[in-house]
């Protein structure tokens, strides 16, 4: 089963992707995490992507699409692979069309798309309280989902940090792009009959429960 999570920055996509991984054994694929890893390692892709990520702009499609297709090929080749949860990809219609074409060529498809919906007024606050784990990108929030020990990841004990693009101006820029470009994907997947909209402005467990119910109904 291949799932796409669509949601603005701060809507809880990363947190809910982790919950789906635990519940369904699907492999999460966060395009933002992959790009940050490339940047940290100083790969050729990382060097090209860095200025865009630092500004809060979208990285050019051809760079991101290649990276995601590599991830999909590698994860499909794993024994016992059950599918992926895409978080942060696609971000625009050309990326979605390319993904559909490549999956079809490999005899696969996107089975379900979850839209996590949170009013824009709440997102700025959620993002400025966000802390991310250095080792694996686990996500916390100082108010709504704090770690057991401040500054330390509950799951792997690594250091928590605040992302350099979680500053108020960059958050606004990234949200502008989401509400201008990425929301167009909702129509795209609604027309394919794959979209479920979920109210993400609720406690984490309630959102997870509704998401699992929606996915169960689509299987
Ligand atoms: P995220 O962690 O999803 O907020 O992504 C962080 C940054 O990575 C974004 O602000 C973009 O610069 C870049 N990025 C992540 N996913 C994509 C994508 N699908 N297309 C283009 N740029 C992306």
Distance, first to last CA? 8 Å
Bound molecules: adenosine monophosphate
Which CATH class?
A: Alpha Beta
Q: Any idea what the CATH architecture is?
A: 3-Layer(aba) Sandwich
Q: Work out the helicity level.
A: 40-55%
Question: Which fold name is given in CATH as the topology?
Answer: Rossmann fold
Q: How many separate domains make up the residues?
A: 1
What is the string of SSEs from the N terminus onward?
Answer: EHEHHHEHEHEEEHHEH
Counting copies of identical and different chains, the oligomeric state is single chain
Could you tell me the strand content as a percent range?
15-25%
Report the biggest beta sheet as strand number plus sense, adding barrel if it closes. 5 strands, parallel
Q: What structural class is derived from the secondary structure elements? A: alpha/beta
Mean pLDDT: 94
How many helices? The count is 9
Largest sheet: spatial strand order: 2-3-1-4-8
* Poorly predicted tracts of residues: none
Radius of gyration: 16 Å
The CATH superfamily bears the name P-loop containing nucleotide triphosphate hydrolases
Describe the protein in words.
With 219 residues, the protein is of the alpha/beta class. The chain has one domain (3-119, 182-218): P-loop containing nucleotide triphosphate hydrolases (Rossmann fold, 3-Layer(aba) Sandwich), CATH 3.40.50. Helices cover 51% and strands 15% of the residues. It has 9 helices and 8 strands. The chain has helices at residues 13-24, 31-41, 44-55, 61-76, 93-105, 120-128, 168-182, 184-191, 204-218; strands at residues 3-7, 27-30, 84-87, 112-117, 130-133, 139-141, 160-161, 195-199. The longest helix is centred in the N-terminal third of the chain and has 16 residues, at 61-76. The radius of gyration is 16 Å and the shape is globular. The model has no long low-confidence stretch (mean pLDDT 94). Adenosine monophosphate (AMP) is lined by residues 9, 31-32, 35, 52-53, 56-59, 64, 88-91, 95, 165, 174. Adenosine monophosphate is lined by residues 9, 31-32, 35, 52-53, 56-59, 64, 88-91, 95, 165, 174.
